[in-house]
Amino acid sequence: QVRLVESGGGLVQPGGSLRLSCAASGFTFSTYHMSWYRQTPGKQRELVAHITKGGRTNYADSVTGRFIISRDNANDTLSLEMNSLKSEDTAVYYCKAAPALVFGSTYWGQGTQVTVAS
Length: 118
Known about the structure:
mainly beta, 7-stranded mixed beta sheet, 4-stranded antiparallel beta sheet, 11 strands
């Protein structure tokens, strides 16, 4: 079965750091583009960071310079290193996998909660 399992969320103080991980299985990870999204109650789900199968990255303006997205194709994992965290970073963070070709399926994880508060 296809699985995307996020982990690493939790409570962190403003200015702190946290690393999220997404473990993928059941599909050919190396052929998929990967993304991190986040959502807060009352707001639309927004793209946080994206990394193509070739390793090219893009970030939302709100996290540029603070977050780093990376992938480990040998271990089928996606990571998000979050630094200088702010209260507005509080959200449920989701892992997304999209095929490089249009013939595959898109997958979502169930999310992990990140809370930035003192």
